[in-house]
Write a structure and sequence with these properties.
This protein is of the alpha+beta class. It has two domains: 69 residues; 138 residues, Ribosomal Protein S8, Chain: A, domain 1 (2-Layer Sandwich), CATH 3.30.1370. Helices cover 42% and strands 9% of the residues. The protein has five helices and six strands, in the order ααβαβαββββα. Strands 1-2-4-3-5-6 form a six-stranded mixed β-sheet, covered by helices on one side. A hairpin with a 2-residue loop joins strand 5 and strand 6. It starts with 18 loop residues before the first helix and ends in an 11-residue tail after the last helix.
Length: 245
């Protein structure tokens, strides 16, 4: 599935980025958009060539368009990994938290599925997923939250919208999503998602249930890649203990 070439808005970072960091992220996304425009132009001209019976030119333009598509995917991959590193640095989020700010919807889905599998394989009991409130999206509509909820349903995991609507609590053990008291967050500011807490709105199969008082997918392991190495930096192995602080 092709990644949509639209920015999620000005909230790509969960903190106040340096000018260099913001410029690098924008540079990579802009390069991807430029390659997408070239791809589309090639495919349009290829269609026109085919319509007038010039099969050779149509094939050449189609191949050129595929090369631009490959470059677009590569620039978007670099941007996705870059913003993931920036937003999930150990001084910005805790080990039981993943921040998806700045990701396109399909990117966020892939990252979340990998993180959930990784966390389950390493004995984590839950995960806080930061999706943002949609403040920077068109019409302030949350784009990431519905896809995160869909991933949870597909993996058979119950989830709850935290008091801060920009965060989702996921029970990785398959039980009810009853959120324990949140640990102390790092001192860095988290933009529009805040630190959350309080009474979450529970979901099972995507249907809201009553609020409750605060309390405490198996798939073959993929070969390690760059994203897996990034994920491993933010999740500590806890030995024989299964509880994540």
């Amino acid at each position: 599935m092709a990644i949509p070439l639209t920015r999620l808005g000005g909230g790509a970072f969960n903190h106040s980025p340096s000018n260099d960091a913001e410029a690098e992220y924008d540079r990579l996304r802009d390069l991807a958009r430029a390659e997408a425009a070239k791809r589309n132009s090639c495919f349009d001209r290829a269609h026109q060539a085919y319509e007038r019976g010039d099969g050779a030119e149509a094939k050449e333009l189609s191949n050129e368009g595929k090369r631009h598509a490959a470059k677009m995917d590569e620039y978007n991959r670099q941007a996705s990994e870059y913003i993931f590193r920036e937003n999930n640095a150990t001084d910005r989020v805790t080990d039981d938290t993943i921040d998806l700010h700045g990701q396109f919807v399909e990117e966020a889905e892939d990252i979340l599925e990998r993180r959930i599998r990784y966390a389950q394989q390493h004995g984590q009991t839950h995960l806080h997923v930061i999706v943002g409130k949609g403040n920077h999206s068109t019409d302030h509509v949350q784009k990431l939250k519905p896809r995160v909820e869909q991933v949870c349903r597909e993996l058979g995991l119950q989830y709850a919208t935290e008091e801060n609507a920009g965060r989702i609590y996921v029970n990785l053990q398959g039980g009810e999503a009853v959120m324990p008291p949140l640990p102390q967050q790092p001192s860095a500011q988290h933009g529009d998602h805040g630190h959350g807490g309080g009474q979450p709105q529970h979901h099972q199969g995507g249907r809201p249930q009553h609020h409750s008082q605060q309390q405490q997918h198996h798939q073959e392991q993929e070969q390690p890649d760059e994203l897996e190495r990034l994920l491993s930096k933010f999740v500590r192995k806890l030995g024989d203990c299964c509880v994540v602080m």
